[in-house]
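User: Quick sanity check before I run a bigger batch. Here is a single chain. Can you write out its predicted 3D structure?
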Amino acid sequence: MQKRNFVSLVFGSALAGSEGATYLLGDKANEARSDIDLASGGENTLQSDEREILLLASLAPSGHNARPKFVKWIEPYHWIVGNDRSRWLTGVDPAPRETILSLGAFLQNLEYAAYAFGYQCQFSLLAASNQAEQVMDLRLVKADSQDQGNIGSMTLRHTVRGNLLSEPLRKADLARLVADEGALIHYLPAVGKEAHFIKKQIYEANKLQTYREPAQQELADWIKFSSADCRKYRDGLTMGGMAIEGLRGGVLRNFDHKASVMNGNFRKRGTEQARHEVAAGAGWFLITSEDHSVATLLDTGRLMQRLFLKVRTLGTALHPMSQILENSAIRQTLPTGTGLGKNSQFAMRTGYLTSYPPQVSLRRPVSWFVRR
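Assistant: Done. Predicted structure follows.
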């Protein structure tokens, strides 16, 4: 089977199950990733395998699903990965720390995808600060071997907010998740005092952020209420992506708009949802780093993505909850409350699932983020 056909098969099968059909019929949402042809159109300069590699790389996560990266095409198999300032989340991430972390996740997917197509990546760091536009010079060179084993994990990976079980992670599963990753991934079981501290602080940070006008306005700007906007922009937060489903999701999708996000009822419901979310699950993963340099943040984003690509095979899920790291006062309490180092970069809720929901986090086609 050709690689391209294999990728298409995985994409098609991801939403083919009965649970996907139930969601689409019950919620009346045209938000499924499989509804969009991500690889089509416009990028005639790209070789076919370049296009497929970038498609797989683009499936990495980013805050508010803002997709803050671009790829400058220099010549075949030689690109510059860049930092798209127009997509920064200045309301919650002015540094922009989370942007660099998300670029690291993108680079990890890109490296796995390149190897699946028989290439190795040669990286050369260009950025001296988080604000630099050009981040990484990248060349793909032919490799002696290839490995398609990560394609399925990349295409099926997604954030799950709801229905995380409280059953503790089994020791064997935890060992597989953190294997070979050193001492930078820390698991806090839900029954421990450190996890209780995290729950309390994340809920408090979420509540504070919900009532901080610039952060809430930024949230409103990135929500795609209608199916038409989902198809038009193919990024941002959908009702399904925020786990706002059923009748409430239908009402918001059909009758609400950005101004609705700023009213008291929407904010109240958001904080109540956060309270339910932090109370569920098996525990938390915290990922720390040695420092805050660009190179270290990129490596930390890559580390997070490697963890994210493992969870589904074990029937587990991850839900990043970044608010605790976006509030400077609360962030300063983490070393004391968790006993970990001061450089926490990710806080992620985890737990087993009885079944995975369909993927509703949209992606922009490859041609939309490739520049010449």
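The domain at 171-352 is CATH 3.40.109.10 (NADH Oxidase).

User: Great, the batch can go ahead then.
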